[in-house]
Amino acid sequence: xxxxxxxxxxxxxxxxxxxxxxxxxxxxxxxxxxxxxxxxxxxxxxxxxxxxxxxxxxxxxxxxxxxxxxxxxxxxxxxxxxxxxxxxxxxxxxxxxxxxxxx
Length: 103
Fold this sequence. Notes:
single chain, alpha+beta, 19% strand, globular
């Protein structure tokens, strides 16, 4: 999952608000937002895994990683043959990308 900075903060604030029943309005990418994004990513991966396991397809997911920049993600591309990316729009928040790396 790839987020730009403003979408990251907006999703993090929304997730924290839903989880804690509060109104969050952080404007920077802090530890609270990072934790909320990790929870969001884990939930999305869990739901995707459950849905895919109910089909004939066998796709494996690893635990989500939180990476700050492109340079730190180079190790993920080792042996990757193709990348499938799906843009996902969230109304009034922005767009993030879900990528599947085919090895």
